[in-house]
């Protein structure tokens, strides 16, 4: 039977577009109110805030995150190649802006290790191009912000003039200028993506790509911190292969290791790892996580200050951290042009991590987020702080997990965290002067435990899906051995190639009938299936399009053990020879047989089927090449008196076949060529003479 399709109502797209434009361009008080409430979601949920129910959880989680945020912000400044004060600015402004614009109740937006690493790589590259020394312990700029070394000043002044910056700007000034320009451009990209609704870009970053990218970047972060752990002074490597070059330099200079830094690092790592393991084991019994990082920083700072580790043992320390806020300054336009390309992967990674975390926790706690608004929120978390000497931000999984475990209910907790950071900015920052850099490196390395533990999951991942494991390995290797940006690009391209290859060479099978049922399955996978006499049932488990057309035909000919083109050509050849012998009056054929025996000789082996059923249930779409391929096999098999029947086609495939003329001009033969189940097609084939 042939089911009757519903009549489609023609849509006037021009009228719809005009109506949408008229609606979007109109301005009414209600529409303006809705726009403001959509753009600032805080206006919707804050008036409904359940004060007695939510406030204590928000205060507790905000205080805990603030306590964790301060040492992490100071530590991650090493990754970004910037002074700690800028990390604190970043943490403060990001929390405030996301409170106003974010739609997630739980994510913690602020400084993030991977984003800091990507910013730091661009900052280091531009500093090197400008003629600055990348050594962290190089003498700082003087009070008037001029450079110390005359020769360096001349070189740098030339480069800075080209970059559009005043020649009096020193290394620190130029570094934060690069970081703010990069951050501003990343924010602009994110806002533009939100305006044009390009959030679908995140779909191309699979879980395997993101995990591989995070693990590869973690190896790069770990490598960059080793020199602080052991207190050696080596140049900061730049460009491709940074990980290998850095390790070579580390082993070459291992004899210069600072014993004080080595001992301090060993003690800090043992304390931090032990505390983390205890916290993980007893997290259900603890009301809030142990503030281990803060305790380690306070103790280490006191020991370093009163033990005079910098003066006596030449241990590298954080140095002076000013209090208060530096006057705002617009990012330099000329610098934006230099880093415009670098800002694109930064914008995508920042957005993807934020949205994926927001969706994960929204699903867990049964509420919804708006991905497009999240893109605006993250974009403005980059654009606005870039005027206040801050760099790029993103949501961080570790801090978000801590927020939820300590009772967070809304983004009020983010405001509390910002107040803790503000307290440090205004009063407590100078107290961290004597904090050793090796302690900050220990905090960074221990925070990478989650990403580095992904190596333990490789065997289980391999058992689940070999292709996804290969994508993870390729992305991780490229991110670690080449660069983070190239690694991300390689991961995306490689994962898409894997999808293309899997559709180019999909599974194919001949089906057999499950005994005493109307169901059919793969004959090579299941036992006790019965073959259908005179009928071959072929399944192709992929869309049929130009890239897999040849594989479709080869698989069909191989499994049915019949190539209709070769068989037709062979028959024509013998018919031609037979006619030539008959014209000569020879009663023997070309093979020495009698005329009566010729018919048997035309077919070298008997064709064991008279109908071919193509199971189209796994064919999601057809392109023009796919339709022509099916028309081709229909014609070729018809020449051999074999009928081709299609079963289980979806409506889009049927439409493609109709438009391509597969069923003829009037679709009269459609009900004899198209069936809604394999069993119906088999029954029809059996009834044919």
UniProtKB/TrEMBL annotation:
It comes from Calcarius ornatus (Chestnut-collared longspur). It is found in: Apical cell membrane. Its main location: membrane. It is a multi-pass membrane protein. This is Sulfate transporter. Keywords: Cell membrane, Glycoprotein, Membrane, Phosphoprotein, Transmembrane, Transmembrane helix, Transport. Residues 525-685 form the STAS domain. Belongs to the SLC26A/SulP transporter (TC 2.A.53) family. It catalyses: sulfate(out) + 2 chloride(in) = sulfate(in) + 2 chloride(out); oxalate(in) + sulfate(out) = oxalate(out) + sulfate(in); oxalate(out) + 2 chloride(in) = oxalate(in) + 2 chloride(out); bromide(in) + chloride(out) = bromide(out) + chloride(in). It comes from the Eukaryota. The chain crosses the membrane at residues 54-76, 96-119, 173-192, 212-230, 335-355, 376-398, 410-428, 472-501. The keyword Transmembrane helix applies. The keyword Coiled coil does not apply. Gene3D superfamilies: STAS domain. GO terms for cellular component: apical plasma membrane. InterPro entries: S04_transporter_CS, SLC26A/SulP_dom, SLC26A/SulP_fam, STAS_dom, STAS_dom_sf. GO terms for molecular function: secondary active sulfate transmembrane transporter activity.
